[in-house]
């Protein structure tokens, strides 16, 4: 389960930012996860709960926004989303596509407790 190591990296980054800004408690951590990132959101949540249960991040919500596959056609520059691997552009039918979103796993923002 590679989600455990991913969550540990997220925790490390968040704790560094908490220390840097002298924050003691968080309300939520918001992630963006691409559909092609090979990450299972439920596993991320479970691993987060396990790894933070006895830490200062205990009780912090983990919010995951799934990022759809988004392509750009190199021929007509059209951007479009797809549920799966796209074969051609819906505008010009070119097969010259680049996936521009859908592989990411990133911390979008952190909410600090009031």
Describe the SSE topology.
Layout: H1 3-20, E1 26-34, H2 41-52, E2 61-67, E3 69-73, E4 79-82, E5 97-101, E6 105-112
Parallel strand pairs: 1-2
Antiparallel strand pairs: 1-6, 3-4, 3-5
Helix pairs in contact: 1-2
Tags for this model:
114 residues, alpha+beta, hypothetical protein PF0899 fold, three-stranded mixed sheet, three-stranded antiparallel sheet, 2 helices, 33% strand, elongated
Shape: elongated
Briefly note the CATH topology name of the domain at 3-68 and 102-112: hypothetical protein PF0899 fold
Helix content, binned percent? 25-40%
Task: State the helix count.
Answer: 2
Report on the biggest sheet: 3 strands, mixed
Instruction: Give the CATH level 1 class of the domain at 3-68 and 102-112.
Output: Alpha Beta
Summarize the helix and strand pattern as letters: HEHEEEEE
Biggest sheet strand order reads 2-1-6
Oligomer: single chain
Can you name the CATH architecture of the domain at 3-68 and 102-112? 2-Layer Sandwich
The rounded distance between the terminal residues' Cα atoms is: 34 Å
Description:
With 114 residues, the chain is α+β, with helices and mostly antiparallel strands. The chain has a domain at 3-68 and 102-112: hypothetical protein PF0899 fold (2-Layer Sandwich), CATH 3.30.2320.50. Helices cover 26% and strands 33% of the residues. It has two helices and six strands. The chain has helices at 3-20, 41-52; strands spanning 26-34, 61-67, 69-73, 79-82, 97-101, 105-112. The strands form two sheets. It has a three-stranded mixed β-sheet with strand order 2-1-6, covered by helices on one side. Strand 3 and strand 4 (79-82) form a beta hairpin. It is elongated and about 55 Å long. The protein starts with a helix and ends with a strand.
């Amino acid at each position: 389960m590679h989600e455990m190591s991913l969550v540990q990296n997220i925790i490390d980054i968040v704790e560094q930012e908490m220390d840097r800004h002298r924050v003691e408690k968080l309300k939520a951590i918001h992630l963006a996860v691409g559909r092609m990132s090979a990450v299972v959101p439920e596993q991320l949540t479970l691993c987060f709960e396990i790894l933070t249960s006895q830490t200062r991040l205990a009780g912090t919500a983990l919010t995951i926004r799934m990022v759809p596959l988004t392509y750009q056609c190199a021929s007509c520059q059209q951007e479009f989303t797809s549920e799966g691997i796209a074969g051609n552009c819906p505008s010009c039918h070119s097969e010259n596509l680049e996936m521009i979103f859908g592989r990411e796993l990133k911390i979008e923002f952190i909410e600090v407790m009031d």
